[in-house]
Amino acid sequence: MKRILIIFALATLFVACSPVEYDTTATITGTVVENESGDPIGQVTVTLKPGGNNTYTGNDGHFEFNNIEAQHYEIWVQKTGYKTDKKSIETRGGETVSVTIKMEKR
């Protein structure tokens, strides 16, 4: 009985001392739409700062940044015929943040 208790105590101690892993990356998804109509805008250049990662929206206005460091970002959107705009967001490890960005025509 004493051996069983010692083995149990050692096993519990081993598990309790194991390092805890935290997810330090995040995902940002979003849609860029026209301010007046709410229609999605395709082929918008989307830049993530800091980091300078770039992507483009699909015809459905959707964009996505995966496995980025969890921190504060500004998302800049740009397309000919529209005013350049930005949106600030905060990301946390293991989470997905979704945003909608409205662009105004020039």
Please tell me about this protein's structure.
With 106 residues, this protein is mainly beta. It contains 1 helix and 7 strands; from the N terminus they run αβββββββ. It has one helix spanning 2-16, and strands at residues 25-34, 45-49, 53-56, 62-69, 72-78, 85-90, 96-103. A 4-stranded antiparallel β-sheet has the order 3-2-5-6, with no helix packed on it. The protein has a 3-stranded mixed β-sheet with strand order 4-1-7, with no helix packed on it. A hairpin with a 6-residue loop joins β5 and β6 (85-90). The N and C termini lie far apart (81 Å). The model has no long low-confidence stretch (mean pLDDT 90).
Largest sheet, described in full?
A: 4 strands, antiparallel
Uncertain runs: none
Helix content: 10-25%
Q: List the helices and strands in order.
A: HEEEEEEE
The averaged pLDDT comes out at: 90
Radius of gyration from the alpha-carbon trace, in angstroms = 22 Å
Topology:
Elements: H1 2-16, E1 25-34, E2 45-49, E3 53-56, E4 62-69, E5 72-78, E6 85-90, E7 96-103
Parallel strand pairs: 1-7
Antiparallel strand pairs: 1-4, 2-3, 2-5, 5-6
